[in-house]
């Protein structure tokens, strides 16, 4: 493991001490924010925009577990899905609405009565609910995508927001492609949306095109020109096509926005959305310059990041800010020396503040259930009894095969279990013959919806033979787009973590599997991807969702 901070290393977890050169105005703005006007509403759209990223699909149970973690983290609004998109989305919003009590549960809806009705019925059981309706307002989108005149779009805004307000008190409205919209038209639609009852006006940078200063000026322009703007909370929703989603969101906050839409790990359409962990840690760490506060309990960040990564099969790049494996690692001797003398030399926030705990328990073959449970909890996992038993049995198997069980092994083991829970297709057994002078051959046994069958296949290599065997039992037309193996730890007894990407009719899914046996891990990853494909097959193609009629 690369994290090499010592127990002496106690960096600041909140705002840092200002240097002697800090100006009076900076010192003034560093006062703790106690006023509601300084509260930032965190709107998480991992389960909606995040799930729209190619390859990221989640089943009901996975969405529920993410929603619970988001609520525990203190997320204000959870956008649980797009109710009309599929039966699966509708069910997920319905179930999340039943169990989430503290956060507001939200569904997206286009500007049509049918969409809005579907969103309202999915949200029926929610203690606190919101309908988020949107329509494009940029000349490009209106002309080519919607094929509607601006006046008709303006009327659709009034009709859709009024309809949503008849069904739900809390309505959010978004002008899609807001940053490329004509300012006069944007002001006109925002004013009408507020008049029709929208309480939150969200300005999306749908294609990630804007720059921080430009976006701040747009927010200022709306605040100056829309007469009833004080009746709504201004929100922003930034995409990361130019890598500016977080910078743009923060610039907008400085200009008066008070809700930020974001996702865990920056998941989302194309290059993704603004990453929640970066936003909240930037506000927390640079509170001298950003004197705002959110309700997010940042110690839950790592747990949420790992869960989202495990469920979607999207691995976090090692150098990703806040949650990457190297974010708190210090490789160079000079840095390590500095860290030992004072953590603040190279760390601007503590690992603990994002939920990275320094290891206190070493796990091995003789570790008991209680120690195992404490270790998981230290790593940010709280499992129910069944899941804990299952994970403990798998840990025992692993400890039999592997002398040292590292934190990374346990994370891979639990993530693997999470991603395979409730799968319709399961691997029951795998036997392989391969080596020099023999044609690789796999004997695969799988259960599909509880019914077990076996197949034998030969291939150009052992992986090919395994995947062909799986294809014999579960025939499909998906094409393999990516096959990647990574060792979880060092050493020849390390677990292999395999990622498989499949594509079928324009839909992509990522599957993951981990095991000390690379072929078993590969089979699990392939089957995990097939299970995700089953979920994704039920979804309407994203392009169709965005066309208005
Ligand atoms: O990016 C976007 O414009 C959206 C809207 C639906 C808010 O996701
Ligand atoms: Zn978006």
Describe the model.
This protein has 549 residues and is α/β, with parallel strands linked by helices. It contains 18 helices and 14 strands. The strands form 3 sheets. It has an 8-stranded parallel barrel, surrounded by 7 helices. Helix 2 packs parallel to helix 3 and helix 11 crosses helix 15. The longest helix has 20 residues, at 518-537. Residues 1-34 have low confidence and may be disordered. Bound molecules: 3-methyl-2-oxobutanoic acid and zinc ion (ZN). The site of 3-methyl-2-oxobutanoic acid has 9 residues, from strand 5.
Structure summary:
With 549 residues, the protein is an alpha/beta fold. It is built from 18 helices and 14 strands.
């Amino acid at each position: 493991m690369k994290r090499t901070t010592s127990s002496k290393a106690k960096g600041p977890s909140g705002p840092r001490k200002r240097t002697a050169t800090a100006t009076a105005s900076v010192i003034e703005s560093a006062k703790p924010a106690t006023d509601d006007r300084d509260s930032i509403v965190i709107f998480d759209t991992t389960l909606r925009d995040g799930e729209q990223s190619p390859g990221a699909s989640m089943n009901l149970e996975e969405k529920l577990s993410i929603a619970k973690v988001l609520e525990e983290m203190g997320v204000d609004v959870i956008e649980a899905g797009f109710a009309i998109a599929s039966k699966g989305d509708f069910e997920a919003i319905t179930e999340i609405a039943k169990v989430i009590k503290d956060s507001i549960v939200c569904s997206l809806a286009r500007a049509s009565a049918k969409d809005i009705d579907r969103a309202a019925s999915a949200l029926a059981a929610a203690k606190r609910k919101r309908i988020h309706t949107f329509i494009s307002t940029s000349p490009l989108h209106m002309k080519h995508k919607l094929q509607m005149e601006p006046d008709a779009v303006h009327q659709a805004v009034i009709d859709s927001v009024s309809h949503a307000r008849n069904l739900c008190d809390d309505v959010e409205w978004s002008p899609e492609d807001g940053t490329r919209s004509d300012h006069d038209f944007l002001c006109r639609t925002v004013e009408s949306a507020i008049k029709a009852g929208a309480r939150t006006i969200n300005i999306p940078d749908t294609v990630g095109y804007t720059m921080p200063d430009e976006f701040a000026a747009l927010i200022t322009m709306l605040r100056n020109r829309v007469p009833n703007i004080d009746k709504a909370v201004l929100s922003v929703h930034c995409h990361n096509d130019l890598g500016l989603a977080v910078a743009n969101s923060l610039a907008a906050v400085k200009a008066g926005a008070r809700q930020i839409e974001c996702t865990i790990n920056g998941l989302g359409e194309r290059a993704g959305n603004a990453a929640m962990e970066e936003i909240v840690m930037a506000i927390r760490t640079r509170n001298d310059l950003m004197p705002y506060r959110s309700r997010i309990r940042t110690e839950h960040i790592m747990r949420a990041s790992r869960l989202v990564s495990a469920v979607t099969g999207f691995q976090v790049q090692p150098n990703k800010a806040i949650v990457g494996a190297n974010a708190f690692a210090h490789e160079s001797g000079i840095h390590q020396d500095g860290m030992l003398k004072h953590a603040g030399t190279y760390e601007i926030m503590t690992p603990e503040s994002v939920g990275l705990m320094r290891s206190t328990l070493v796990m091995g073959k003789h570790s008991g259930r209680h120690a195992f449970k404490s270790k998981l909890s230290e790593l940010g996992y709280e499992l129910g009894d069944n899941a804990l038993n299952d994970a403990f049995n798998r840990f025992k198997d692993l400890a039999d095969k592997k002398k040292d069980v590292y934190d990374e092994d346990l994370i891979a083991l639990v993530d693997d279990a999470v991603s395979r829970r409730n799968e319709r297709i399961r691997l029951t057994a795998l036997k392989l013959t391969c080596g020099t002078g023999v044609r690789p051959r796999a004997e695969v046994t799988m259960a599909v919806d509880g019914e077990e069958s076996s197949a034998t296949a030969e291939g150009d290599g052992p992986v090919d033979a395994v995947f062909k065997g799986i294809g014999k039992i579960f025939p499909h037309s998906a094409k393999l787009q990516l096959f990647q193996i990574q060792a979880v730890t060092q050493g020849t007894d390390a677990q292999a973590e395999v990622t498989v990407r499949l594509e079928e009719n324009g839909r992509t899914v990522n599957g993951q599997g981990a095991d000390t046996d690379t072929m078993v891990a590969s089979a699990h990853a392939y089957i995990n991807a097939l299970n995700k494909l089953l979920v994704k097959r039920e979804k309407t193609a994203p392009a169709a969702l965005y066309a208005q009629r």
